[in-house]
Design a protein that fits this description.
142 residues, alpha+beta, Rieske Iron-sulfur Protein, 6-stranded antiparallel sheet, 1 helix, 10 strands, 14% helix, globular, iron-sulfur, disulfide bond, metal ion binding, monooxygenase activity
Length: 142
Amino acid sequence: MPARPAVPSRRTLLRSAAVVPVAGLGAAACGPDGGGGAAAAPTAPVDLGAEKEVAEGSAKLYRDHNVVVSRGRDGSLKAYSTVCTHAGCAINKLEGTRLVCPCHGSEFDARTGEVLHAPATVPLEELSVEAKGGRIVAGPAA
């Protein structure tokens, strides 16, 4: 008589069914805007908008380009990629000058790119930024 194929128990099937949706959610949440894939910083200079949009001592998030620009009290501009250094998620929340990643809760200082709250341990990538003809232009670091 041939051997019967192994049949998983009811308990094994229920455990597997419970784990699959949870694992799928983690992967989906780690992409840009919660979708699959990794976010990307600009690879070429991009015009972000009017220079006056970023007041002294504040920051502005440009979600469409994965860039945050801050202006110091002295008028100087700084720009950083808003691709989280923990899992590559697009950061989509700016509270004052604090960036908050939607995937795992990492927080960064928009003025310095420094990590304020883990799980990220590496600062944001600094980008080049300048004001040209009243417009803010940011791109990869030179």
